[in-house]
């Protein structure tokens, strides 16, 4: 436990306004080691930790600690050197230090809020904490997979993700060069109703925003195509099997309107269509749908989904899956 009340020495007050104001920060309740050899300061907390621990895991900090400070009046917390974490949020520093000091990161990541995992990606990339960065990327890649099989097996997209966290992760993933998670991330962001999206768009840099809007527009077109191809009339016009059984044609029409009736005001996007599409929960035999028509419909849906998956990274990032790292 840190001391309840301590006073920073005069030199800890930033005169240049460049870093967090250490004087308003208080010692963190947990991350405070009495034998710590450095105090890290955010605008909220002070963390007394060990230089050797930081240097072991971060080449950036190791190099920083090795810069000679002779003749320079360094900031101190009483007799301990104090480093102001300029540009790092308190959440980022806190979660990074918890990851360093004993937390089983792989386990914790499974239940960690996305905003915290994003903070950890950001700060571990900035200071080159390679092992932590690798674990966080592996976790994010499981949430936002790069193969359609893994996407279908994952349940993250079936939950209700927070728009703010997802849009923020787009920005951080670009900055930290974790492109492999971006296609699914963009897809999930595209599926929010526009009323949500308009509030989030200003958080994206202009180029990302353009790609996002163009990609979303393409996804809307894909959804239209699925609906169009689900209609028996179009299936007849197209190269699909012609069905002349009135009951089958009627049932397809009913099933389509049944699925779409809850999507009057927003779009059902391609990967959110149930596996069997409009035939989900419909027994073809029982409902008078010919086996051939059902098979043709499922093949059509699978083919559009697969095609859309293959094009997803190109539509949002101008790259193929295999070009993402
Ligand atoms: Zn039929």
TrEMBL record:
TM segments?
Answer: none
Q: Where is this region: Disordered?
A: 1-28
Renumbered to this chain, the Basic and acidic residues biased-composition regions fall at 8-18
Alphabetical list of InterPro entries matching this protein: BTB/POZ_dom (IPR000210), SKP1/BTB/POZ_sf (IPR011333)
Q: What top-level branch of life does the organism fall under?
A: Eukaryota
Q: Which residues form the BTB domain?
A: 36-101
Per its record, how is this protein called by name? Answer: BTB domain-containing protein
- The organism encoding this protein is Schizopora paradoxa
């Amino acid at each position: 436990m840190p001391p309840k009340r301590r006073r920073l020495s005069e030199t800890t007050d930033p005169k240049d306004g460049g870093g967090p104001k250490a004087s308003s920060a208080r010692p963190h309740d947990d991350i405070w080691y009495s034998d710590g050899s450095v105090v890290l300061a955010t605008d909220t907390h002070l963390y007394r930790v060990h230089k050797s621990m930081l240097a072991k895991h971060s080449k950036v900090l190791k190099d920083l600690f090795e810069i000679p400070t002779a003749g320079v009046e360094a900031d101190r917390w009483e007799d301990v050197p104090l480093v102001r974490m300029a540009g790092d949020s308190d959440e980022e520093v806190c979660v990074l230090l918890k990851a360093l000091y004993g937390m089983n990161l792989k386990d914790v990541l499974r239940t960690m809020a996305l905003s915290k995992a994003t903070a950890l990606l950001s700060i571990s990339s900035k200071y080159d904490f390679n092992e932590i960065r690798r674990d966080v990327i592996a976790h994010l890649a499981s949430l936002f997979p790069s193969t359609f099989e893994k996407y279908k097996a994952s349940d993250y997209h079936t939950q209700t993700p927070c728009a703010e966290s997802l849009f923020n992760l787009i920005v951080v993933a670009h900055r930290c060069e974790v492109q492999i998670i971006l296609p699914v991330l963009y897809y999930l962001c595209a599926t929010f109703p526009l009323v949500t999206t308009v509030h989030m768009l200003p958080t994206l840099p202009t180029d990302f925003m353009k790609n996002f809007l163009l990609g979303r527009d393409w996804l809307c077109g894909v959804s239209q195509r699925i609906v169009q191809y689900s209609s028996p009339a179009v299936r007849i016009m197209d190269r699909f099997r012609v069905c002349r059984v009135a009951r089958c044609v009627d049932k397809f029409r009913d099933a389509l309107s049944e699925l779409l009736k809850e999507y009057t005001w927003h779009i059902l996007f391609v990967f959110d269509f149930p596996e069997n599409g409009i035939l989900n929960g419909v027994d073809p035999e029982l409902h008078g749908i010919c086996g051939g028509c059902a098979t043709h419909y499922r093949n059509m849906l699978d083919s559009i989904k697969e095609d859309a998956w293959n094009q997803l990274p190109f539509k949002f990032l101008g790259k193929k899956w295999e070009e993402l790292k």
